Amino acid sequence: MNMAAAAQSFSGHMRKLGDVLQFSNEIVHPKDNPTGITTFVGLEHIERDTGIRTGSETVDLELMTGRRARFQAGDIVYGYLRPYLNKVWIAEFDGICSVDQYVFKVRPTADRNYVYHFLRSAEFLKTAPIDTAPGQLPRIRSGEISATPIPLPPLSEQKRIAAILDKADQLRQKRRQAIALLDSLTQSIFLEMFGDPVSNPKGWDDRFILSDVADIGSGITKGRPMRGQSTRSVPYLAVANVQDRALNLKAVKEIDASDDEIARYRLLRDDLLVTEGGDPDKLGRGTLWSEELPEAIHQNHIFRIRFKDSRIMPLFANWLVGSERGKKYFLRSAKQTTGIASINKTQLSNFPVLLPPIVLQLEFAEKTRNVCSMQTALSAKNLLLDTLFSSLQQRAFSRLL
Q: Is 48 helix (H, G, I), strand (E, B) or coil?
């Protein structure tokens, strides 16, 4: 896999992307009275950075209410809003997509996969001007893409470089798939051991609510009046940091708080953090705190659940709250506005818990730890593959520019 040799094997002939891309302007508009059934792919169906399509929708064109762009199998589809998300993919079938994606074909002078990898590279984002006009999401306009230079070695070298990047990308995807399978494994273990938490077929004790077995508290409010109190800066978790059974600590903000506030809101090991809402399908999203930081507090849009009853383990509670039992309960209880749903402390407190034998919960915790160990090992290897892929992209294109 000698990328340097591939990159240095030609003199760096430059062309503009407009010379190799043929933009498709085929728009499907309701006023044209289209008919038939087709497949729709929106930006929400494309995974960032990977080029993987994670979903689609079957749509009846007669019922379509907005404009859509048509694509064909083999076309490159580029999400131009927030381009740093790298939502670029190659269509596997004919269909329609949202108009915040460009559709184009690659001319015979260039290799499609080579161009695809270039559009996903940091070198392209460094070169193409991103429009950051006030009041609009960052975007790359079609004319700016057309004017962006692309290094274009002979077609044989393009195919060689693309093949190297394809292989590295496939390795990353296989590792991600393995991690996803481990996620499914833990879900299967939970259901096998405890049964369907909605119907409770094993008859676990269901006489208690969450506030019977745990203390539930909200967090600190930004912009509150301090009235001259002495403060110090402390890390605090926002909603973006709390994922579904995971923490994202890449960007942790700090807040000035008094010692009394820090003592009140400080997170302790095995606290269960649950977000108050957002998208309806994210109700009940939460994870356990394992003292990932020496000291941290949490904002008021996150609930802290601290267990006080030895009959329930925090890990089991995390899975129970995030299960279908939790989702159905929160959807019934939540306050909902357009596309947004939220729960309050009272609704969370009234969540009906199940109390299977503690021995069974301990066994579940042990099995989960084993799965987590495998996930950690795979994630570390995947990080190395991500680094390798980025390095290969950089060596492929920056040496050519």
A: coil
